[in-house]
Amino acid sequence: MKRLKKNQNRMIFGVCGALGAYFHTDPTIIRILFLISILFFGSGLLLYLILAIVIPSDSHAN
Prior knowledge:
The relative contact order is 0.22. 56% of the residues lie in helices and 0% in strands. Helix 1 packs across helix 2 and helix 2 crosses helix 3. The N and C termini lie far apart (24 Å). The longest helix has 15 residues. The mean pLDDT is 85. By secondary structure, it is mainly alpha-helical.
């Protein structure tokens, strides 16, 4: 089973990079979706912060 872990592709906390690697998609698309969710729905920021706390860091990332 594939694990969700923060990786080197990070801008703030590495959440979008981790989701992009997990779903085999560009992290920029995930970042845009989070931005749209924050601007129009307001729930994206809360979800991002929860994921930043919950997703473990990759042991190989510096």
